[in-house]
Amino acid sequence: MNRPRIIVFAYSEPGYVCLNELIKAKANIVAVYTHQDDPDEEIWFHSVYDLAKQNNIPVFRPKKIDEETAQYIKQLKPELIFSFYYRRLIPNEIILMPRLGSYNLHGALLPKYRGQTCINWAVVNGEKCTGATLHLMTEKADEGDIVDQRGFEIAFTDTSIDVFKKVSVIAGQIVHDNLNSIEAGTVKLTPQDNSKATKFPRRRPKDGFLDFNKDAISLYNLIRGVTHPFPGAFAFVGDRKLFIWWAKPLDGKGDIGEIVSVKPLCVGTGNGLLQLEKLQWENGQELTASHFVEDLPVGTKFNI
Prior knowledge:
Layout: E1 5-10, H1 12-24, E2 28-33, H2 48-54, E3 59-60, H3 67-76, E4 80-84, H4 92-95, E5 102-106, H5 118-124, E6 129-136, E7 146-153, H6 160-184, H7 216-226, E8 233-237, E9 240-250, E10 259-262, E11 265-268, E12 273-281, E13 287-288
Parallel strand pairs: 1-2, 1-4, 2-3, 4-5
Antiparallel strand pairs: 5-6, 6-7, 8-9, 9-12, 10-11, 11-12, 12-13
Helix pairs in contact: 1-6, 5-7
């Protein structure tokens, strides 16, 4: 029996890992769609484009899925579509095309954390666990029936990049374990409980602002949620923008937004102290806190 014709939309590390699982399983991949890397983005993940090229799979990087692209996909007659961290909306006419369905890999335990940047939000919100979900794609994003989902713990020291890597591993396992039943059309689907759904918006660089009225743990969670390779957390001293790439929460008291000590370099928050460890003035060099003692003496106040 011939294997079903598969089109894959993929990007980032989960996309790379899941595509690699399909390749190892000798799936009949007739085309891969991915993205051009953004020169303004810190690229930390393996290349879906390179992986497809290395395995002689036709690969495309359109700026958008326009009518011409949709017509070409129709000509390929896909029987199955996978979307693994593809960043653009795939039109409904394409999603509904394959006889075996279209499936998306989401980096959370649906129905919780629907929406984009779900991994960053989970870390920013201080979640202690998350996971990956493979689900049927429908006209409403992230609402389709679930094929499989598996969770894991988020350590208190994990950054979003650490969680991304964990999601990638789990995602690969899910694809490996469910491919045969999906190809055979025998996969069992579980409807999502919409009453338990949560949805978060896309995060933008401006969302990294540190409000020192909040407690130290919440500020720490924001920092680890948006630190490298993401745009970073920041505060202002006067009109100077200071990125804080790493810090840790401590017990203690201090005036909100004020430097209370320099060794260690600590700032008061709404509850507890935040010890600043890796910092960078805008357009400056990232350095350890010891290099900022003169710039941030005791009594320095952040804008709040």
